[in-house]
Amino acid sequence: MLDGITDPAVRAAVAEGYHKLLSYKDEYEVARLLLSSREKAQAEFEGDFKMSFNLAPPMLSKTGPNGRPMKREFGPWLEGPLRLMSRLKSLRGTPLDVFGYTAERKMERALIKQYEADMREVLPKLDDDTREAIVALANLPLQIRGFGPVKQENEAKAAKRREELLGVIRAGGLPAARAAE
Predict the structure, then answer these.
(1) How do residues 150-169 score in pLDDT, each as one tens digit?
(2) DSSP assignment letter at 69
(3) How far apart are the C-alpha atoms of 34 and 56, rounded to whole Å?
(4) Helices of type H across the chain
(5) φ and ψ at 55, to 5 degrees?
(6) Nearest-CA neighbor of 69 among 102, 111, 36?
(7) pLDDT bucket at 176, cuts 50 / 70 / 90
(8) CA separation (Å) from 131 to 13, 63, 88, 159, 169?
(9) The pTM is what?
């Protein structure tokens, strides 16, 4: 995607934004990270080390008073399933990826396609008047953080901002100070 982008600021923004979208943390990656954290913690602490995991799996979590899933504590028995999940990452993106059917995973894949289409549209329009808006659009995925409802809220905010930026770019740009707001 970076081929032909000569402007350093735009090139860096596209690289960062695209990387953010491509490196989302799905269940397989979370399993790997939790096991890695466990290994690091065990190396730091002596004695009878025990670790628990606080998670909010969609199928097992109740909704809290704030409308978000409530986390539950899982004991060391979870390490076995986590090891299995971390090894099953080759299923990612295949029809056998049971997690790929969730709304969040579908959204993440759709965001990648949308980003690629947006960059194909706006990069040919790059000039002094559109540069700041294109950089802001390319960096927009960096604002989509979190998991579950938090990520959905951030995606909705980013979608609104995306429309504003595309409008600016399609109109030929605005003064730099207003486009990057």
Answers:
(1) 899 999 999 999 999 999 99
(2) B
(3) 14
(4) 8-22, 27-44, 79-87, 103-122, 131-139, 148-170, 176-179
(5) -135, 165
(6) 102
(7) very low
(8) 11, 43, 42, 20, 9
(9) 0.79
Instruction: Report which DSSP code applies to 24.
Output: -
3 state SS of 52: coil
Asked if 14 and 122 touch (Cβ cutoff 8 Å), the reply is no
- Give per-residue burial for 46-80: e unless 16+ CB within 10 Å, then b: eeeeeeebebbeeeeeeeeeeeebeeeebeeebbe
Please check whether residue 35 is in contact with residue 82, taking contact to mean a CB–CB distance below 8 angstroms. Answer: yes
**Six token digits for residue 38:** 């466990």
pLDDT reported for residue 181: 52
**What angle, rounded to 10 degrees, do the helices at 103-122 and 8-22 form?**
160
Amino acid at residue number 125: K
124, two tokens? 């040919």
The span from the CA of 165 to the CA of 159, in Å, is 10
Task: Identify any residues that bridge with 69 across adjacent strands, giving them in sequence order.
Answer: 63
Amino acid in position 112? I
What's the Cα-to-Cα distance from 8 to each of 13, 15, 122, 142, rounded to whole Å? 9, 10, 16, 18
Residue pair 65/81 in contact (Cβ under 8 Å)? The answer is no
Cβ atoms < 10 Å from Cβ of 41? 11
